[in-house]
Amino acid sequence: MKKLVLGLAAATALAFAGGAQAQGYPTKPITMIVPFAAGGPTDIIARIVADNMSKTLGQQIVIENVAGAGGTTGITRAVTAAPDGYTIAMGHLGTFSAAPATYPGLKYDPINGMQTIGLAGGTPILIVARKSFEPKDLKEFVAYVKANTDKVNEAHAGLGSVSWTTCTLLKGILGTPKINAVAYRGTGPALNDLVSGQVDFMCDQIVSVAEQVRANTIKAYAIASAQRSPALPDVPTTKEAGLPDYQIEAWNGIAGPKGMPKEAVDKLVDALNKALNDEGTKKRLLDLGTVLPTAEERTPAGFAALIKRDADKLTPALSAAPKQ
Amino acid sequence: MMETISHLSLGFGVALTLKNIALCFAGCLVGTLIGVLPGVGPIATISILLPITFGLDPTGALIMLAGIYYGAQYGGSTTAILVNIPGEATSVVTTLDGHQMAKQGRAGIALGIAAIGSFFAGCVATLIIAALGAPLTKMALLFGPAEYFSLMVMGLCFAVVLARGSILKAFCMIMLGLLFSTVGTDLETGQERLTFGVASLSDGIDFSVLAMGVFGFAEVLRNLENPEARDVVKAKIGRLLPGWEDIKQAAAPVLRGTFVGGILGILPGNGAVLGPFASYTMEKKIARDPSRFGKGAIEGVAGPESANNAGAQTAFIPLLTLGIPPNAVMALMVGAMTIHGIIPGPQVMTRNPELFWGMVASMWIGNLMLLVINLPLVGMWVKLLQVPYRLMFPAILIFCCIGIYSVNNQPLDVAFTALFGLFGYLLIKLGFEPAPMLLGFVLGKLMEEKLRQALIISRGSFYTFIDYQERPISLALLIVAVLVLAIALLPAISKKREEVFTE
User: Fold this and answer.
1) What residue ranges define each of the domains in chain A, with the CATH number in brackets?
2) A196 touches chain B (CB under 8 A)
3) pTM over 0.95
4) Residue A79 C-alpha, separation from nearest chain B C-alpha, in angstroms
């Protein structure tokens, strides 16, 4: 509470100071649209990063949760807003790289139609299965799934979600796109049915499944990153376990409308980098199992390249996926 | 037993620090307030307050957020009783008899019995969490998509009983509710259904948009039509708190409501919404004179209110013991825990015992606080009924609009609420009850989702629902559903049915 009062006082003081100078971005609070409900992985990362960025910018970054249509409602609103630097968005792998292939009527172009700021963090993806599922390791899993395509059930958190996107990629790589996919409304219910053994396997972010793996209520076959995660050091990478093609991370990053003033872009990039170098912010992100972005990915160009790279990787599998 | 006591003493040690008491109180107070304000729900409030908890320790933060959640359940009944607006799905049934009691000048008694019933249910549910949390989790895991679908079918059979007038009209309203629930993006295929190209419909109709429209806005419209009806309420406010007779009458419904609500609250996928409906059905079925229901029967307030509060507390069981949130508010709690570096999972209980037991103990303290906050306020709430229409109606409309907007930050949602308001007015004029429609709407989404999940898993075989070897629970629930329907439809007992369903 005290912090809020202090924050408000500081914001008011700065607002007056800004008004006196009448120049220099930012002169008023910035809205960061999070295209998902509060409390989800993207929302948490946005709040942690925005908290520190606000200090650097001298203006509060206000989080606005605009959920809907797999996050595309919120991103549409953000990238079609006035390009004055006061409306930005925290999107993820799904909304920036997968959306064009998932939603045919998408109203924005993530590659050419928006101004990237930078990557805030990546979250490793794990292939997990119910405890009693027969295959013991990833090699057995691949063989089993290929041999029993018509028996296996995969759970995901709804079309367009990270778990759907990453699992569809996995099924594309395995050459088994027709595996039974059971859709749930969110990761929670999907995980519930995985723990109770109603469904066989799913792909999801480490932050959602790590505790269940540690408690041995579900088992993890592999992590789809280049390195093992300190959060689950015993889980091998897909490369080590024999499926090197399956490399995907659920990242979260900031972008805004195309045509933002250069000053605004530079200041936002600078504030993002300061936040990612701040010890407190860093620790909170690492505690979530986040992989901090490289120096390159923290720049607008580097982030844009990442969006393009993952879009190219995902599009074939997503376009072939049974939907609509 | 000894273990439970030592755990509870650890919990009370944590919860009874001055800071945590203050946070618990703040949470309960904010919760009561937003519960009373129509349209402003706990989901919006907790997500707005989430960043404020950054500066607190995790236990304190969760104690406050939990207080907001169950505090809102207490406050929600106030609006349902006084102005006939259910703030949440769980207070829909309270409008049926609660508002009738208010119209008869028994508003204070209705509010009082709701608070006392909720307190009792809260205390019992807290004890259940403390003593049986871990074993009960296993029960939640027995519920797969097939069991869930059968439970929803049973719930829908209950819905017919909610009708005050003709069964046919109630049935039509349930179907309409089911139809409304299918609006939005298809979960499996991503195809948009019944959205007519309107972008903000792509995620379906929000419960609060529909409920604020057909109850809140429509109620205001209806009252504008005949201002004199209000004078009845104005004239006699009557006794403020329930007397011995009322309490005796309400005691058994409170016990049954607590039991039913507590059990349903543990189930994943928001089973708690069924609690009040199930309790109401049960009370109406076993009442000696069912015709009193819908006309201000105290059992129709006491049972469902206890059920909703018991469910609100036991809904924490899957979150705390499994780390899996059963509903949207609990999903926010997961976010709150994660922000504080505690990733919810099956080990929270052993790894963070002070958090787990501190929260359990704080719930009991919170329930006591809520009773203390609410009972003296009854007099004040009842006085609200005397606020002139020209002040009260604009205030209700404004709070509804703010609440609706705060759910998704979508201006079009407010416009839709207005549209549903006109629709709700039409329904009232034609003698249709909105409550069965809301139940159909709430259950419809879950039902379709679970039906399709179950059928996908079973590769299209309907046998999965009656497979007595693999899924005995599903079979049992369907048998109960058939029995409920049979009792309502068999000609031999149709005379009794008349008594149940007609005024």
Assistant:
1) 2-19+26-122+250-320 (3.40.190.150), 124-241 (3.40.190.10)
2) yes
3) no
4) 16
